[in-house]
Amino acid sequence: RIPVGLALHMRVGNCLDAVEAELREISVSGGLVAAGVQPPIGTDVILDIVPPGGIAPMSISGRVLYHAGIGQTGVKFMFREGGGSRRLRELVRRFKLS
Description:
14% helix, mainly beta, 50% strand, 6-stranded antiparallel beta barrel, single chain
């Protein structure tokens, strides 16, 4: 995993309201998110991330896999469309270069 410190918005389950959060670590398979809320393990989440050098947010679907202390949540990325995996690899590559 690559350590990062990137602000993001996290939507939990079917809730349309987003929670402010921070992406602390990222890899192609998942990430560590710090937020004021800690969704239960197994909950689906959507992370809206603006990539380095980007303007528009990129939405990444995931599922809460574990809790790493208070306010820190491990998320496994899920791919629903064909280009999701490719876009995520590009995002991780940008973090490696920045």
